[in-house]
Structures are given as C-alpha cells and as structure tokens.
Amino acid sequence: MASGKLLRQLIKSGMQSDSDSFKAASEAVIREEREKKHHLLANDLERLLYGDRSATVRGKLKLISTDALPVNKDNGLALLEERTVVRDEADIVLADSSQSALDEVLMEHRREDVLRAHGLQPAQKLLFCGPPGCGKTLAAEVIASALSLPLMVVRLDSVISSLLGETSANLRKVFDFIAERPVVALFDEFDALSKDRGDGADHGELKRSVNAVLQMMDGYRGHSLLIATTNYESLLDKAVWRRFDEIIRFEPPNLEQIKRLLALKLSGIRRNFETDDPHVASLFKGMSHADVERVLRRAIKDMVLSGREFLGKAHLEAGLAKEYTHKR
Asked: Given a cut of 80, is residue 325 above it in pLDDT?
C-alpha cells in the first residue's frame, strides 16, 4: 500500500477539491506502487485517474528524473537515457519461436508472485541476437510497454572509456542504478562490452570491462529486467552466454510474416492491392523488418507527394529501387 504521507496528501487534496494536488498525489501513489512491482494495481489506478487515456499518458510520462541518472565523471554525460515507449505488443511481428519466447518472458513477469511463492523468479537477464533490423530493440520496447516500466538505454559512448578502470567504474554506476529501481535496461550492441577476451586486437581496458560485466551480471540482485542485444553473436566472449537466463534469436521475416507486417504497417492506408497478395509479399523477400518498414515509408511519401489517392505497386517498386540504390 502507499505510504501514510501520500494517503494523507491524497485525502486532503480531495477534500479541498484541489485537482492539481490530487492528481500529483495520485501519480505519486502510482509510481510508488509500480516501484513495488504492483503493476496490475498501478495499471488499475492509472485507468481510474486517466480513463481511456492511460496508455497514452504512460507513454509520454517521464518516470525517471534526469537529475537521478548516473554520469561519467570525466565529461558529465549521463550513462543512461530514458527512451519514450510508444509501441506495444500489437506493433511487433516475429517468427513463432521468437514470439513464444517473448510471450513466456512476459507471462513470467506478469505472474511473478506465483513464481516467487514457489521459490522461483522470472527471467531477468535476456540476450537478443540476430541480424540488424529484425526487431531486437523493438522487442525491448514492447516488453517495457507490456510491463509498464521505463525503458532505460545504456549509452555506450558514455560508458566506454580509454582511461584505466573508468569503463568498469561506469558500469558499476549503471548496475547500481538499475538495481535500485525497476526498469527495462537495454544494453544495445552488447558485443562492444563483452568481446571475446582471446581477441588479441583489443586493448587491456576492454578486456577488463568484460571481466567487470561478468562479475556484475553474476552479482546482480535488483528487480530490473536486463536486455542485451547483439548483431554479432560470434564476437561475444564464451563466458557471457551462461550469464543470461534466456536467449532469444531474431531472424528476417518469411513471406507469411511479411504479409502480416504489410497489413500492420499499411493499416488505414488506401491502396489498390491486398497485403496478403503473394506477389506483393515476394517483393520484400530477404529483407529485414526495418528494411520493409523503410520501403513502405518511402512508398507512402511518394503517394502523398504525387497527389495520388491510392497506394499502388508502382509506389512499392519505386521505394524498393531507392532502397537497393542506397545499399550499393
């Protein structure tokens, strides 16, 4: 339950018909309940406070003060940044195996109390691996949205330092921060921190950072969900793999997934073709999710700027031509 101080503030503002104070106190109660991992209660309170706008408000709400973020002592840059969560479970298209693994992680966290009652805990350290543009970062955002948690991205440009011991010190600040409050902590391009220590091309500081990462992952006891992503799994140090509770692989979409992706991205767009047309889907064969989305965005812009009422295959083909030109 919320603290006595907050409850007194809530009742006092309600009795005085002070709507601003009432809203502020209510939001403080919601934050407190969410920090206690009472997500269902926090969600119910948000719906009562905001009505149908709760999801929108939650996406725009900054849950972590920038003043609270740890910084690199040399340049003052924050070691993490909060990324606004705008996409949810309806916005992702994955292979069945990847989707099932993602669903299982969400179920474990939604029923965390049941697991802990049996001496178990939900998966807290996840590794997402696969080619670029196949949904790894999006999946992290979806998890944050589904669990109503802030999405905190670890800034590698601030964390990694050439100075002796500074990378490890920065990592310690990051792990201490995420251990204190429940968030989804995204370590994008994790291979930059955990390259194979047998690689003679890397200098000693990076090798020390791998040791630091391993020790901090072993010792982590917080409530945040840690997600690491890599496009180059072969670069990861062999000792890193067993530190993760779950490993989820992401692959480029097959033709059936491309059809679903087209239906999702072209929803509400007037067009003169069907999204489940095999010929249309085959135009995108071999592309990543991000590639498909980028081509569709170009095609829609082409339609709008040319004054056409319907999106046609010619617009798709023009978008594809630009995509192949840029990749040469």
From this structure: no
d(CA 194, CA 241): 10
* Beta pairing, strands 246-249 & 225-230: unpaired
Nearest CA to 151 out of 112, 129, 109, 181 is that of: 181
Other Cβ atoms within 10 Å of 96 Cβ, number: 9
- Burial class for 251, CB neighbours closer than 10 Å (0-12, 13-18, 19+): middle
78 φ, ψ to 5°?
Answer: -65, 145
pLDDT digits (tens, 9 = 90+) for 304-313: 999 999 999 9
DSSP 160-200: --SSTTHHHHHHHHHHHHHHHS--EEEETTGGGTSB-TT-T
Residue (of 293, 291, 266, 290) closest to 277 by Cα position: 266
Q: How far apart are CA 74 and CA 13, in angstroms?
A: 44
Task: Kindly report, residue by residue over 164-179, the tens digit of the pLDDT.
Answer: 678 889 999 999 999 9
Q: What is the reported pLDDT for 298?
A: 93
What is the end-to-end Cα distance of the chain in Å, rounded? 59
Query: CA–CA separation, 245 vs 128, rounded Å?
Result: 11
Report d(CA 157, CA 169) in Å as an integer.
Answer: 14
And the tokens for 218?
A: 């072993």
Query: Which CA distances in Å does 100 have to 105, 242, 251?
Result: 9, 21, 14
Residue type, 77: L
Closest CA to 156 of 194, 203, 211: 194
Are residues 226 and 233 in contact, defined by beta-carbon separation less than 8 angstroms?
A: no
